[in-house]
Amino acid sequence: MSNMFSSSTARPSKVLPMTPSASLNDTQLSQVSSQFLTRKSAHVLEGQYNPHLPLRGEYTEDKSTMFNYLQDPIKPYRFMFEKTKEKADMMDEHIDYIGSLIREHYNIEAFANPARASQEPIYAYGRICSDASEGRLNDQSVLLQLSKDVGMGKRVRLNLSKVSDYTLFPGQIVGVFGTNIRDDVFHVERFLLPPMPKRIESDILTDRKPVEMIVASGPYTLDDDLSYQPLEDLLKKCEQDQPNVILLMGPFISANHPRVASGKIESLPEEVFHNQIAKRLEQFLEKSQRSHVLLMPHADDMIQSFPLYPQPPLENTIRHGRLHQLSNPAQISINGHNISASNIDILFRLAKEEISRSPEHTDRFSRLARHILQQHTYYPMFPHALGDSIDASQLVNIQVSWLPDILILPSQFTHFVKSIDGVVCINPGHLCKSLAAGSYARIVLYPTTDANSQVRVDLFKL
Questions:
Q1: How are the residues of the chain apportioned to helix, strand and coil, as percentages rounded to the nearest 5?
Q2: Same fold, 31-70+200-344+388-461 and 88-192
Q3: Which strand (E) or helix (H) includes residue 294?
Q4: Class of domain 88-192
Q5: Tell me: the pLDDT tens digits for 247-269?
Q6: CATH 3.10.20.310 corresponds to the domain 31-70+200-344+388-461
Q7: Cβ neighbours, 10 Å, residue 256
Q8: What are 407's strand-pairing partners?
């Protein structure tokens, strides 16, 4: 029997030692990245807001940039432990909270149950939802879900034939005025939208020079490789301009990157982040002694353990005095300027679900951003979009507590800047779009309390 397992002609297999060449295979330049490096035009200005305001100019100020958290960073929490009743209670509380704001804003004496028959017009409030589990919302499928206090959580169909101006989406909390004569359909005569959050006083440091800020959103490498040439190109530009602040919003190592999603990556995501991102940021901070870098995670990031929204800050993989980790979302102050940022593409999600009939609010992007402010939350949609995971126990951490001076909402939509009730809303776009260069934004904040007229925004194609 022993002869069956031996052969004089068999050659022993050769065991090759592991080498660091695996990471080189992941990060070597592809043909597309090579073409990116030799592109004819780079950092092309494609849009502006308040272009008459001058740039900061050469940085000569000795005073350091001041950072403050307007809302405490989100702490790590246990997820995937939601209980149905607790989730329902949290959602119900949010309906009643927005309802109380509507009641106070419109001086309504009392709300009534719109699911009951009434000959006289009444005021009510609730959450917009659809009568179908699949398909988009339309003007014939609108339901109003009531809170426990108003209608025991029941739903009533809305007739919109008398309303000439509305913009609705599933999850939106609104007030309604109308009648339900036959106990089956509530005929809406008017929608009452929630008021905007209140603005807190900005403690602007008027003795400082303007703050120049670069804002970019991932991905930071093209889909053909993990060489991160677009990020390096952006940092080289920042070395020349020496901005006060660079806000980099994830994903940094995206789970949706073709190499990662297909399993063709040979290095650990943490190794790629350290070699391709962390080292570049450290080199930039050494060369730019007055610049600060802010990092914000994304649910698609492979280098963090919270694949949902909201998110605590990234772990301190980079330790530097001028590198700051932000939670997602975040509300911060830079030299007294109140800035809010949320790193989830809620604008694109809302656009797919919204129905609108509004002769007044014809600008689509302004309308979408206005929903976020009016609903007092960075994620007003319900049910959530496919692929999004929102922890109901953390709803307080995605609440828009007050009006910021600047609101940053990265989206796959074309970059834009909109002014909404004194809030400058900015979509910087994504730094990379599949196999092509994307866009980023430059913000110049002047030391004045009138942020709307004293902020300049430039939108660049990388």
A1: 25, 25, 50
A2: no
A3: strand 292-296
A4: mainly beta
A5: 999 999 999 999 889 888 888 89
A6: no
A7: 12
A8: 340, 425
